[in-house]
Amino acid sequence: MAGGAPGEAGAVHEGILRRQSARESSARTYARALPIVPVRARGLTIEGADGRRYLDCLSGAGTLALGHNHPVVLEAIRRVLDSGAPLSVLDLATPVKDAFITELFRTLPPGLAGRARVQFCGPAGTDAVEAALKLVRAATGRTGILAFTGAYHGMTAGALAASGGASDVQVTRLPYPQDYRCPFGVGGPRGAELAARWTESLLDDPKSGVPLPAGMILEPVQGEGGVIPSPDDWLRRMRHLTAVRSVPLIADEIQTGVGRTGAFWAVDHSGITPDVMVLSKAIGGSLPLAVIVYRGDLDVWQPGAHAGTFRGNQLAMAAGTATLAHVRENGLADRAAALGHRMLFQLAALADRFPCVGEVRGRGLMIGLELVDPEADGAASRTGSTAAHLTAPAEPQPTRTPHPASPDLAAAVQRECLERGLIVELGGRHASVVRLLPPLTISDEQATAVLDRLTDAVEAVARRHEAEGPPQQRRQGPAERAG
């Protein structure tokens, strides 16, 4: 796609991409798989410098709850700019900040808002995660953290060490329940029960080698881990076992929050109230903003115990207030639940038609398709549900061995989608999951267009794979696939 744009627009497009490749870090990621140059955007649609238009189901990795340049967000930003108010004020009180906190607290799970404190952490979600871990360690006097396999909480593991502070956080990984690749080989409620028992045993066994931790951090739906929703019963079990042992539960709602999963916060599906919530992405209305909200009795910090230069971003707070209010007042979480269910139901047919689609899963407008190699040795029968999270299964699903993940096929689907004007992301343990994160404002007609383009892309890849067989000559990593 990047090589054929004609005329002056194409020259601008190619020149910018060439300079990016020459000057930016090798750590760049999205730009490698998505060689486009956005110049205009509105709602679901992006226009590139080459004149091509795309349906954007990446949404800034879930940041754009209302899509690009929503009118209520633009108006909120203009009001602050036109008012002459300062744009960055550290942690000083302002009317803009007060309005944001008031709207945020209005949306919080029952049992938290009335006794909550909020800490503005800095521009990115990873800063909020660092703050949450720091908070529970200070509040409990303990050091270890429980986390889960497949989790993604940010990129700043070395931040404390680089700042000359303590870096002795010990993380114990626990099994995260899922159906398709259940760590216990059973899936369904039985697999979730075994995962919960494993956690409980590790905490209660004096010889487990894991002392009582400072906290447990989890994602109600693992995003980068492959769009894996946690079972509601399992999440309630985690809440219970942490509560009775006085272990603070940290819910990472950075990607799942603000209506994305079909509830305002993903923990609302299970009815639990975490002790700490880590929030970013959509709460800033497309601008950088990150906070933690937590029980007031955990607030043992001394003044200056956690700070940051850019925690007073007034434009982000104004945009965030407008976004939170618009989602709440217009029932966009319920809309995401209904539309997401329909999209999942239609996409499930792909797993029935094409052996290279291992599973379709998700919650609300957080959707994933796992691409697999159906011709690999040892692959088992494709029995059982291919869309296990459309409805909760009443009985454990039959034991089965999933096909090996295929990052090559997933990357091929992403490229075919881009050729058809559809932007999607890859994720999962092996970068084999095609992810959809459309804005909550997507219309029925746009959803149909997204499904049509994605289906066409999967079909093209599946037909080519069947005709050519599995690739023999390469197993490229992300850097090698880039240009």
UniProtKB/TrEMBL annotation:
UniProt pathway annotation: Amine and polyamine biosynthesis; ectoine biosynthesis; L-ectoine from L-aspartate 4-semialdehyde: step 1/3
GO molecular function: diaminobutyrate-2-oxoglutarate transaminase activity; pyridoxal phosphate binding
Similarity comment: family membership: Belongs to the class-III pyridoxal-phosphate-dependent aminotransferase family.
Cofactor: pyridoxal 5'-phosphate
SUPFAM superfamilies (alphabetical): PLP-dependent transferases
Membrane spanning stretches: none
Keywords: Aminotransferase, Pyridoxal phosphate, Transferase
One of the Pfam families matching this protein, by short name: Aminotran_3
Region (Disordered): 377-407, 462-483
Identification of the protein by name: Diaminobutyrate--2-oxoglutarate transaminase
Bias (Pro residues) ranges: 395-405
Enzyme class, spelled out: transferase
InterPro entries membership: Aminotrans_3 (IPR005814), Aminotrans_3_PPA_site (IPR049704), Dat (IPR004637), PyrdxlP-dep_Trfase (IPR015424), PyrdxlP-dep_Trfase_major (IPR015421), PyrdxlP-dep_Trfase_small (IPR015422)
PANTHER family: DIAMINOBUTYRATE--2-OXOGLUTARATE AMINOTRANSFERASE
